Amino acid sequence: MDTKKTTWRFPRAFWVANGAELLERAAFYGTFIALALYLTRVVGLPDHTAGWVAGLFGALLYLFPFFTGALADRMGFRAALILAFALLAVGYGSLGFFHSLGMVLPALFFIVVGGAFVKPIITGTVAKSSDAVNRARAYSIFYMMVNIGSFSGKTVVKSIREDLGVGLVPRFSAAMALAALVWVVFFYRPPARKEEERPADLKETLQGMLLVLRHGRFLAFILITAGFWTIQHQLYASMPKYVLRLVGEHAAPEWYANVNPLVVVLLVVPITHLVRRWRAEAALTLSMALVGVAALVMALSRFFAGRVEILGMSLHPITVTMIGGIVVLGVAECFLSPKYLEFASRQAPPGKEGVFLGYAHLNSFFANLLGFVSSGYLLEAFCPDPHTLSAAERARWAASLQGKCSMPEAYAHAHYIWYAYAGVGLAAFLGLLALLYLSKGGSRPAGGEG
After folding, report:
1. Helix 280-298 × helix 317-345 angle, to 10°
2. Radius of gyration (Cα) for the chain, nearest Å?
3. What are residue 308's phi and psi, to 5 degrees?
4. Judging by DSSP bridges, how do beta strands 313-315 and 308-310 pair with one another?
5. Measuring CA to CA, how many Å separate 439 from each of 217, 287, 306, 346?
6. d(CA 399, CA 226)
7. Residue 433 φ then ψ, to 5°
8. Taking the CA of residue 408 as centre, how many other CA atoms within 13 Å lie in the half-sphere pointing to its CB?
9. 202, 321, 342, 372 - which has most CB atoms within 10 Å?
């Protein structure tokens, strides 16, 4: 019988690692919310090219940790974390000071490599600093730090973008990365490795990934759930340009995006409690249905004749529908998260559950590619950069933002962007239903629940 008691007391390495995570997330989300805008306005890329660059950047951030985690084990956590934050500081600093494509691409690569080291090291430290009794509490603190970093980073860069320009946003991220580097150098000492542990093997990592990608049912599940995150990634891909082009420079895409982590923080615990006895299939099906609804809500602004009065505030219709859609998106995430890994484990062959769970988040690799690349083309088609318009159209666009006339014809179907992503949500929903039907007994809930 385990006589250990639950506690909120953890070793110093745990708290130092979580402090570093907070700074790294503030740095990442501070730049990520502005990245598509930065690539268009500062670097001068058209929307579709910016989508490819941002999509590859986000995709590789989710692919590389499978390999950098193995390297970090061999280098030692402290040396690897110092290298990571040094790369992040150089990468973000380069974005903040050098704006040519020839400098931006290497800078983004440095950020990818540095960021890919941070996640496995921090989560590894959390795991090594806790035991089976207290691991849930340890990870709850870790996820709280992630959300605090995400929220604070996006909040701060709003003022930087408005007052100094989007080109200087990465300097904030560089400062956060540099602060994390100093923090790690002076305070981080990793937990000792247990005798039975051995460094991860790069060959085993690659073999595990190939095994996962050859397994049809699991790969189908990854691609289906990538549809969910494709829509969620529009908070960074489409939404910032969409609201600034249709509402004006005074709009706050950073604050809109912050509605998502706020909803998750407020609702994830009660929703997790609600679904604790649900079959995983039910929770995932509901989340997939809701994500398409979220995209549809974002498209509803065209049905409002003018500004919307709410609690004494006069709001732009796009503000109302965008926040409404993001709230639905946050609720959908709260239903997905508690049951995702449970369902993913049951798609694996017997005895391979651990290997497959290690790659369960490959869906974010595909979601970043699909989400950002499609966003670039959809923006060019339905909500183009005003600088690509004729002089007459630009003048009308500027006048429309002041309420003097309607938008130019180029923006008449801007809401089609959200119809397209509602279609992605519908395809993911139908794909999940098909997978559940074909899996039959293979999706049996763990522990006989249901």
Report:
1. 160
2. 22
3. -110, 130
4. antiparallel
5. 8, 19, 49, 10
6. 39
7. -60, -40
8. 19
9. 372
Query: Does this model's pTM top 0.70?
Result: yes
Report pLDDT digits (tens) over 164-174.
999 999 999 99
What is the distance between the alpha carbons of residues 242 and 382, in angstroms, rounded to a whole number? Answer: 10
Model confidence over 140-194: pLDDT tens digits? 788 888 888 988 999 999 999 999 999 999 999 999 999 999 999 999 998 876 6
Token couple for 361? 């988040």
Q: Report all structural domains of the chain as residue ranges with CATH numbers, in order of start.
A: 11-200 (1.20.1250.20), 202-442 (1.20.1250.20)
**Residue 221's closest CA among 330, 343, 312, 79?**
343
Which sign does the torsion angle of CA 333, 337, 339, 343 carry? positive
Task: Read off the DSSP letter of residue 134.
Answer: T
Strand partners, 315: 308
Sequential DSSP letters for 300-323: GGGG-SS-EEETTEEE-HHHHHHH
**Amino acid at residue number 314:** S
Amino acid in the structure at residue 389: L
In single-letter form, the type of residue at position 234 comes to Q
Q: Is 375 strand, coil or helix?
A: helix
Question: Scanning the structure block, which residue is given the tokens 């690659």?
Answer: 206
